[in-house]
Specification:
Helix content is 35%, strand content 21%. The chain has 459 residues and is an alpha/beta fold. It is globular and about 65 Å long. Bound molecules: S-adenosylmethionine, iron/sulfur cluster and FE3-S4 cluster. Residues 174, 176-178, 181, 183-184, 218-219, 255 line the site of iron/sulfur cluster.
Length: 459
């Protein structure tokens, strides 16, 4: 395939530099959303304008997720409905990017059953997009690049969705092979970005006025393992913390098996690092954790929580949970309820287990019915609601520093933002504060947010 720069030149010559409007929609995790921003960046280089309305688009890219079956079904539903759009506008180009493209049976299904799809852009092939577009415009019915590239991330232009919150992937792929998870199969092995590239990107973002930097990786704690001892994740945190500027550093996800004392020390000693840790537990049952290949027990996990809470009893924790892993017994499930009651998470992201073909768990027998799984999920959410509404009361009377996201929904004249603890804070305020840090005195707590009054100088 032609080099990206050459392909861009030829594309510009073909369409006079004005190829029309592109609609890019990303599904799945924040790493995928960050890839979507890069897809937009590459499209802008070609000359595309961006639209939020697929009906007026000349090019549609669906940046897909494969983590659960429901995510895939949604994309197939959308691609199916796009057949009509294409009938109305035959010049419309439709592309599929992201994690679904890395599964051979899915790529085959797209080829066979969805002739309206013109481009398939693999998870590390964003830079091939100009070449693929050119190939299609020069006659290929389906232009496809699903090769794995190692150096795919640097120097790719990016159109960021926010002007004050930025995601910065620090590594790609995953080596952990949790038995339920498709990610290692669709995103390949762990590759860490060079620390100097990350540091200069963050420096640049802070200079541009970004106030929140979210470091991303499937397991940020193993950042640097492939860089021959050059740097660890806590060391990276300390280097970023030392940069000049008023900004907050967040990161996700952390794998409990690698949540070291060094990491905990870095969180507490770096003033720019958020006072919040997302530490996915997945299950409270050590037997299920063993079958998930998580490589920690419930006791070991609770030991990490204890270390954190010894330093700050109110420290904010959030987690991911899977309900209904193959053959999860009622006892296993009760252990999950026990752990959420004991840890008192500020928020949980819970999912019903979804069978992913090609993973080890897909071969495991499963006698738990769908009805039981749904019932467990409903109860789990109810228990968490009770925990949050009680636990959020600890913030009443405190002043929290909030990065303002935008207007609050359904509350005229109110704003919403997030505190360092990753708690949603709503308060009355003017839209000019969006993108700024504001100190808010907390006066009320709900089960999903707290409310308060901005603190003005002299208060
Ligand atoms: N790397 C992160 C970690 O280990 O915490 C998680 C990444 S994964 C994209 C996000 C969450 O999706 C996981 O923590 C897990 O709870 C959930 N997940 C992954 N595979 C799943 C599956 N087959 N069924 C249901 N939930 C799943
Ligand atoms: Fe999936 Fe486990 Fe890797 Fe997270 S650590 S991406 S859950 S395999
Ligand atoms: Fe989904 Fe791929 Fe992320 S499978 S969760 S978009 S890494």
């Amino acid at each position: 395939m032609l080099k990206s720069a050459d392909a861009i030149k030829r594309l510009r010559a073909l369409n006079g530099g004005a190829p029309g409007l592109a609609y890019v929609r990303s599904f799945g995790c924040q790493l995928n959303v960050s890839d979507g921003e890069k897809i937009k960046g590459v499209l802008r280089e070609i000359g595309y304008g961006l639209t939020e309305d697929e009906n007026e688009a000349d090019l549609i890219i669906l940046n897909t997720c494969a983590v659960r079956e429901s995510a895939e079904d949604r994309v197939f539903g959308i691609v199916g409905s796009m057949k009509k759009l294409k009938e109305r506008k035959p010049s419309l180009i439709i592309g599929i990017a992201g994690c679904m493209t890395a599964q051979s049976h899915i790529a085959e299904k797209i080829r066979k059953s969805y002739p309206q799809v013109d481009l398939v852009v693999g998870t590390s092939a964003i830079r091939s997009l100009p070449g693929l577009l050119l190939e299609h415009m020069e006659g290929a019915a389906l232009a496809e690049d699903i090769s794995e590239y190692d150096d795919f991330s640097e120097a790719v232009p990016q159109i960021r969705e926010s002007s004050f919150k930025a995601s910065v992937p620090i590594m790609f792929g995953c080596n952990n092979f949790c038995t339920y998870c498709i990610v290692p199969y669709v995103r390949g092995r762990e590759r860490s970005r060079r620390p100097e590239d990350i540091i200069s990107e963050v420096e640049e973002l802070v200079k541009k006025g970004y106030k929140e930097i979210m470091l991303l990786g499937q397991n940020v704690n193993s950042y640097g393992n492939d860089l021959e001892g050059e740097i660890t994740f806590p060391e990276l945190l300390r280097k970023l913390n030392a940069l000049e500027g008023d900004f907050i550093i967040r990161f996700m996800s952390s794998h409990p098996k690698d949540a070291s004392d060094e990491l905990i020390d870095a969180i507490f000693s770096c003033e720019k690092v958020a006072k919040h840790l997302h530490l996915p537990v997945q299950s409270g049952s050590s037997e299920i954790l063993r079958r998930m290949n998580r490589r920690y027990t419930a006791e070991k996990y609770l030991g990490i929580v204890r270390k954190i809470r010894e330093r700050d009893p109110d420290f904010s924790l959030t987690t991911d949970l899977i309900v209904g892993f193959p053959d999860e017994t009622n006892e296993d499930y009760q252990a999950t309820l026990d752990i959420i009651r004991e840890v008192k998470y500020d928020n949980i992201y819970s999912f019903i287990y979804s069978k992913r073909s090609g993973t080890k768990a897909a071969e495991m027998p499963d006698s738990t019915t769908d009805e039981e799984k749904s019932c467990r999920m409903r109860e789990l959410l109810e228990v968490q609601r009770e925990i949050s509404s009680e636990h959020y009361k600890r913030f009443i009377g405190r002043t929290m520093r909030v990065l303002v996201d935008g207007p609050a929904k359904k509350k005229e004249g109110w704003l919403t933002g997030k505190s360092s603890e990753f708690i949603i804070v709503e308060f009355p305020g003017d839209a000019s504060l969006i993108g700024q840090f504001v100190n808010v005195r907390i006066t009320g707590a709900m089960n999903w947010a707290v409310t308060g009054e901005p603190v003005t100088k002299g208060d």
